[in-house]
């Protein structure tokens, strides 16, 4: 099938059927102030990273740890969390998880853009959800975390909670060379697009489970608010939509709406839609 300006083409050569090819939409000409070319090549990931502050004290670490444990406990006893777990264990979603994991026993979890767990409630709830998933499911392996805003105190608490804090800013460009769960609630669209672009091959897309902002919501927004620059920056998100199976989560509870609204699970496959 030929690519158009708005659709993703999927070419299926001779068997095996899994050997599908993704073709990006062609860039259209833009008028006026939008006649700019945005480089399609990935920017090189940043340099090695360490917290800006180089001091932490046991009292601050203890207070933050107690706060995090309190949030984990609160979330675990909530109806929101039970519904979240029930969705993961549903027959349809379990099938998608098994397809991604293949013969691997575990999926590594990579958490991008968690924000400051010391300063804000939504990041604390989001991290609590990731921690509870790790405790609940034996198929979740190592948990790695990165956000450039993390303080030294936050980094130490994350380590104490069983997470590895990355020392390099990947800018969302981790390649899924093995089955990987990317946990990215409320990250910027550009980070999702970076992730897709870095994995723009079928064998890698097939190994991704993505929890983050709803791609369907991005598509709906762009269909109403035409913005050529925004469309260009989200073109991988738009191009993959036809091959995305999305499971929206229910985040209507007042306690958890800010942390999880418009969040979905995403799986990528030529059989998705």
UniProtKB/TrEMBL annotation:
Pfam family, one: SRR1
InterPro entries: SRR1-like (IPR012942), SRR1L (IPR040044)
Biased composition (Basic residues): 25-34
GO cellular component, one term: nucleus
Residues covered by region (Disordered): 25-60
Recorded family membership: Belongs to the SRR1 family.
Protein name according to UniProt: Protein SENSITIVITY TO RED LIGHT REDUCED 1-like
Gene it is expressed from: LOC113713237
């Amino acid at each position: 099938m030929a690519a158009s300006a708005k659709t993703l083409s999927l070419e299926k050569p001779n068997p095996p059927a899994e050997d599908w090819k993704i073709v990006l939409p062609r860039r259209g000409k833009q008028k006026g102030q939008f006649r700019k070319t945005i480089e399609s090549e990935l920017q090189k990931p940043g340099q090695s990273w360490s917290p800006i502050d180089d001091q932490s004290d046991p009292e601050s670490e203890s207070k933050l740890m107690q706060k995090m444990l309190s949030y984990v406990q609160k979330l675990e006893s909530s109806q929101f969390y039970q519904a979240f777990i029930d969705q993961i264990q549903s027959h349809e979603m379990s099938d998608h998880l098994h397809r991604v994991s293949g013969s691997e026993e575990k999926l590594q979890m990579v958490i991008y853009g968690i924000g400051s767990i010391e300063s804000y409630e939504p990041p604390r709830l989001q991290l609590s959800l990731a921690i509870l998933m790790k405790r609940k499911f034996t198929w979740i392996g190592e948990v790695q975390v990165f956000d450039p805003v993390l303080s030294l105190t936050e980094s130490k608490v994350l380590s104490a909670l069983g997470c590895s804090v990355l020392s390099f800013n990947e800018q969302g460009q981790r390649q899924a060379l093995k089955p990987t769960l990317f946990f990215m609630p409320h990250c910027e669209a550009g980070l999702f697009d970076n992730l897709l672009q870095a994995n723009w091959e079928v064998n890698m897309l097939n190994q991704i489970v993505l929890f983050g902002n709803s791609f369907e919501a991005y598509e709906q927004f762009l269909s109403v608010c035409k913005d050529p620059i925004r469309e260009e920056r989200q073109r991988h998100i738009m191009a993959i939509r036809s091959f995305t199976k999305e499971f929206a989560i229910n985040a209507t509870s007042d306690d958890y709406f800010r942390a999880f609204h418009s969040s979905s699970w995403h799986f990528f496959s030529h059989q998705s839609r």
